[in-house]
Amino acid sequence: MFTGKTVVLGITGGIAAYKSVDLARRLTQAGVKVRVVMTKAATEFVTPLTFQSITYERVITDMWEARKEFRIGHIGLAEAADLIVIAPATANTIARLAHGFADNMLTATVLAAKAPVVVVPSMNDNMFLNPATQENLKILKGRGFTVIEPAKGALATGKQGVGKLPDTDTLLGHIYRALGKDGDLAGKSVVVTAGGTREPIDPVRHIGNRSSGKMGCAIAVAARDRGAAVTLITASTALANPSGLEVVPVGSAAEMKKAVEAAVTKADALIMAAAVADYQPVKKAPHKIKKQQPALTLALARTPDILGEVQGPAVRVGFAAESENLLANARDKLNRKKLDLIIANDITATDSGFDADNNRVTIIDASGKAEELPLMSKREVAEKVLDRVAGMLKNKKKPAKGRDNGDKP
């Protein structure tokens, strides 16, 4: 996805420097060329050889040694960067950046660069909350730097507070968003739904389904990485919320419909990957239903038909999870809901679908033409779906449509 991109990763002298080893490893695995620049203090926590071993690139620790590789060290490195990430960023380095110092390779590179800069503060909570640090961060934000707020938790001193370096997945979300700013979905707004809704029976029980939310989350993350501003509306799921996009948690179908209506008004595309329950109890018991009778009868009513009721000019994509007559049922849904695309998958397959990391789907367009895809990761499926969506948005022309209930399994 990011092959050919270069990230200059600045490591400064904080205890969290060891965590950046995993960040460098994950970026390298994603095809990014990672050029690590370490301050002298950073080398007291992690050796340059550690980063060099996982990035396969020489680590720069001295202002003058870069002359061996770049025509003018900091200038050449700055020009090569698609993005500069400083993680961890100490209070000292933040202050130097805010006031334009260029007394080491890292600060000189930032001063010479036109690439976006992401700063990730990590330090003792007293240092982070000090007015001087807060003012310096405000200065950097005013200059267009992206500042990723530190996490709360146990600090090096043993106390709880704000100042921890966020986990690698959180950092990668922000970094990929920055790297994908010129992607084929740049400037577009995409709304994605994920997970399975829960329709309450009483304060303890609910009607639900087996959706893990993995497919919807994969689409949301892939759209973010291609430059889109993404709103992920997610029902119950055990997955961690991805970073670098807006996450709207919901519970029931009614809550999801309300969230979709609010988000879709300015959206270019709506992708309903959520498994919305088809029925809900007519009445929710105010207290836990006791197990005192031999049988329990529930009166059920249809849940809101989200794609059928939510209107607008956005490209609309639905999903059809079927156990029989896959293509016929999917085409029927496509036409009833007048969708641009529907993604059909057979839920009886044992190697894909619910809870799995892989999926085997058929993409059907508004004309009824079907493209059957082989078994692949859900991220790969997401890219195939977004290829179609990006093509429609690029042409600024939507095909003549039928319409269906792609939001229901």
Layout of secondary structure:
Layout: E1 6-11, H1 20-29, E2 33-38, H2 48-55, H3 73-80, E3 83-89, H4 91-98, H5 105-112, E4 117-121, H6 125-129, H7 131-142, E5 146-147, E6 151-154, E7 160-164, H8 168-179, E8 189-194, E9 199-200, E10 206-207, H9 214-225, E11 229-234, E12 246-249, H10 253-263, E13 269-272, E14 279-281, E15 300-302, H11 306-309, E16 315-322, H12 326-337, E17 341-346, E18 358-359, E19 361-365, E20 370-372, E21 376-377, H13 378-395
Helix pairs in contact: 1-2, 3-5, 4-7, 9-13
Protein architecture, described:
- It is a single chain.
- The protein is of the alpha/beta class and 409 residues long.
- The chain contains 13 helices and 21 strands.
- The strands form six sheets. The chain has an eight-stranded mixed beta sheet with strand order 12-11-8-13-16-17-19-20, sandwiched between helices. A five-stranded parallel beta sheet has the order 2-1-3-4-5, sandwiched between helices.
- Helix 1 runs parallel beside helix 2, helix 4 (91-98) packs across helix 7 and helix 9 (214-225) crosses helix 13 (378-395).
- The longest helix is centred in the last third of the chain and has 18 residues, at 378-395.
- It is globular and about 75 Å long.
- Mean pLDDT is 91; it is low at 402-409.
Q: What attributes does this structure have?
A:
409 residues, alpha/beta, Rossmann fold, 5-stranded parallel beta sheet, 13 helices, 21 strands
